[in-house]
Structure formats: C-alpha cells, structure tokens
Amino acid sequence: MISLPLTLGTSPLRKTCLLKFLVVDIQSAYNVILGRPTLNAFRAIISTYHMKIMFPIIGGVGEAQADTLQTRKCYVEAIKKGKKRGLEETLGEENCNKRGKDSIPSPEPKEDAPDMVQPVEELITVELIPGNVGKVTKIGSKMKKDVRDQVVNYLRKNKDIFTWTPQDLEGIDPGVITHLLLDW
Length: 184
Description:
Blueprint: E1 2-10, E2 13-21, H1 36-42, E3 45-47, E4 52-57, E5 60-65, H2 68-84, E6 123-127, E7 136-140, H3 145-157, H4 174-177
Antiparallel strand pairs: 1-2, 3-4, 4-5, 6-7
Organism: Sesamum radiatum (Black benniseed)
Region (Disordered): 91-114
Protein name: Reverse transcriptase domain-containing protein
C-alpha cells in the first residue's frame, strides 16, 4: 500500500486528502478505483445519475463531475478486456457513440438474454448438518473430489456461523433485524 494525496474538484472549490492505495498488477480499464474509504475521507455524496461527487469544503461545496466521453471509453475497454479473459457473454454495447456524444447510454434488454443469471456450472446440494435437509448450501460440481471434500468439511466445521432464522442471530438487538411496515 502507498499513501498519495488525491485532489477532487477545481479551484477554488477543491479538496485534497491523503489516501492509501493498494497497488495491484492486473489488466484493467481503470487507473484507480475509489471506494468507500475515499468517499468517507472526503465526506462525499455521490449521484450516479448525475455522474457527480459533491463534498464539503471550507465556505461551500466542492464537486467533481465525470467526463461522460471518457466514462464510455472505459466501459467499452472493460468489456473488451472481459472478452479477452473469456467472458464472451458480457452484456453491453461496444459502440458507445451511436447515441450521440453527450448522452449516457441506458441498458437495453436483449431479446435472447436470459431473465435470470444462471450459474456457470451445475450445483451440488450439501447438508451442513447430515440428516437435516433444512440446513443446506450449494457448491460447484466441477471441483476435484479431494477439493470438494475439503470444502464440504470446512463448511461443516464452521456450520455455526450460518444463520437460518432471526432467532439464530444471538446477541443482536431484534430492533436491528426486524422489518416493520410503517402505516403513514
């Protein structure tokens, strides 16, 4: 990890914070991915619809606006790199400019696209407590037998971390896990 100063916004409505970045050696369409730690450091509010980040500064509000053309280029590049890695079924448009320079493309359902995401392989049902068909999970079927046995043993050894009902969440205030429908 390295620490670098990051400046958002344009003068005079800008802010700089010292942030930690994890450097990874992988192919990506992005130079950097800013996550929750960055947003929290800037006390930022994001609007994906407006492609804008707003953050408090002394005497006002700073903002960083996305470059829509660059965003579309990154999206197309990410799809191309995904296809190179064998993800041929990535949904999306490769020609991002066909709607015009200033428009943001919206996803359009494809006629042959499945209604639901399907697993990449058949799944095997595993009883975490042998004989208890109510406490099961699923794992992939393409694992080698010895790896599958290790995974099943690990899951069974740690079966106490799974919760099946709200009553299994011991020590948690029911107010945190209870959903109430409010009548206005």
